[in-house]
Amino acid sequence: MKSPMEGIESPKQEKKIPFFLSFDQVMRLFNAPDIDTYLGFRDRTMMELLYSSGIRVSELSLLNRLDLSLSTRTIRVKGKGKKERVVPITQTLPVG
Predict the structure, then answer these.
(1) Beta bridge partners of 74
(2) For labelling, which of 18, 41, 73, 88 has a CA lying 20 to 30 Å from the CA of 9?
(3) Helical axes 23-31 vs 38-53, angle rounded to 10°
(4) How far apart are CA 66 and CA 96, in angstroms?
């Protein structure tokens, strides 16, 4: 028995162009937290880490202190499917 749907193509979905921030918008975002406070310092560090490393927000949320290696300036990231990878961190990140 043949399916009545055989030979019918599904409609193509329009691919949207990704939205991105300008350099000025990124700098305003980075300068928004008050880095003289613990929470502001944390927020700025998280933003810079996301921006410079390309890790996902979900991967950032899974990081803990043991994932950071200051000697090699890397972080161990747990990604999709419980896969792990080592990601370098930039010199400008305020770690320590």
Answers:
(1) 69, 88
(2) 18
(3) 150
(4) 13
